[in-house]
Amino acid sequence: MALYELSTDSIAPLELAKFASLGLLERKDLQRLIRDHIEAIAPNTLVISEEFSSWDKSDRRIDLLAVDEQARLVVIELKRTTDDSFADLQALRYASMVSRMTFDDAVETYRSYVEKRGLPVDDPAKALLEFFHWPEPTAGRFGEDVRIVLAAADFSTEVTSTVLWLNERDLDICCVRMRPYRLGPKLILDIEQIIPLPEAANFQVQIRQKQREIRASAERGSDWTRYDVSTDEGLQQKLYKREVMLAAVRQLIKRGKLPSEIEAATGRRMFEEIAGNVEGAAFRVELINRHPKSPKVEKRFFTEDDQLFQLNGNTFALTNQWSKDSMEAALAALKAQFGDFGFSIKETA
Predict the structure, then answer these.
(1) Buried (b) or exposed (e) across 242-256, using 16+ Cβ within 10 A?
(2) Cβ(3)–Cβ(12) below 8 Å
(3) Mean of the pLDDT values across residues 76-100?
(4) Dist CA 225 CA 328 (whole Å)
(5) pLDDT > 90? residue 273
(6) Is the pLDDT of residue 324 over 60?
(7) What is the DSSP secondary structure assignment for residue 136, as one 8-state letter?
(8) Counting CB atoms within 10 angstroms of each CB, which of 135, 149, 195, 207 has the fewest?
(9) Is 148 helix (H, G, I), strand (E, B) or coil?
(10) Buried b (16+ CB within 10 A) or exposed e, 115-133
(11) Global pTM exceeds 0.90
């Protein structure tokens, strides 16, 4: 769609321009103007940093980092062109990187920003609390979600289709189109949020919530399936599928099979290995240290003392992430590779 100049006797289209032809640079001009008028593309937000980069061993920088009134972080990426560099959605990496930011981190980030720019903010902590309408830092939960705002002259189909797909899976990404027009000696900037459409935003939130509840219900429903399992240890009754896999692996290891052989048979990585004979608490700490970007990784493995396997001076933990299909496929592969290894399973009520 175009913009038109309306007079009493004509409707004339305005000349669509390009930021580059207008002599506007991406960071020096466009980013500066948007930074100081952030409500134009992201209403009800407060910029707390520009060219933000606090992570180690990376030269990646967030154009603008903001917070909204719900105390969510907002990653804002700007492009003055129709640029497919959005196609890899680098903002997703940035969102992941800042997702661990605490309220205190945000205060220090904002403090550095206002000091660098000489803004009239005497107390950054107080300013943030007032923006969130919080009486104190513990009045709400900071940074539970990270929003992403992509602003550009236009967006390719690859980008918009990717954003729509990600939003259907509970992310919060919006695309804002910025188009400059000439009107005589003046410049007009047409700013339009194209994803999600503002009039459909609330409806889409409701749809995502419904889909989330459906997925959660399906996951809970599958967990009701129970199994009776027989091994050398005897009969174990009413086990969940993850417990079935632990029983099967324990049986194989007792019969001399190594974790590497079990993984080779299933074609799946099933174990986390740590050097030395360690207890569950130490194993969980090591998991967290190894996978700092995987929340609650320690809960994805069997790590209680009586669930770990200690072999040849090393300690192994089995993953507990099993669906009904993956459990059945793994058991079939183990049986095909090792034959009758003294393990039987029966679904029970």
Answers:
(1) bbbbbbbbbbbbeee
(2) no
(3) 77
(4) 13
(5) yes
(6) yes
(7) S
(8) 135
(9) strand
(10) eeeeeeeeebeebbbebbe
(11) no
Looking at CATH, the fold of the domain delimited by 4-214 is given as Trna Endonuclease; Chain: A, domain 1 (3.40.1350)
Please say whether the beta carbons of 150 and 166 come within 8 A. Answer: no
Q: Report angle CA 193, 196, 197 to the nearest 5 degrees.
A: 65
Query: Other C-beta atoms within 10 Å of 235: how many?
Result: 10
Q: Where are the domains of the chain?
A: 4-214, 226-348
Residues 84-110 have a mean pLDDT of 83
Q: Please give the torsion angle defined by the CA atoms of residues 324, 290, 252 and 267, in that order, rounded to the nearest 10 degrees.
A: 60
**CA–CA distance, 73 with 104 (Å, rounded to integer):** 13
Q: Give the closest residue to 318 by CA, choosing from 241, 219, 233.
A: 241
Q: What is the mean pLDDT of the chain?
A: 86
Could you tell me which residues are beta bridge partners of residue 5? 12
- Nearest Cα neighbor of 81 from 177, 153, 155, 23 is 153
**Tens digit of each residue's pLDDT (9 = 90 or more) over 113-139:** 999 999 999 999 999 999 999 999 988
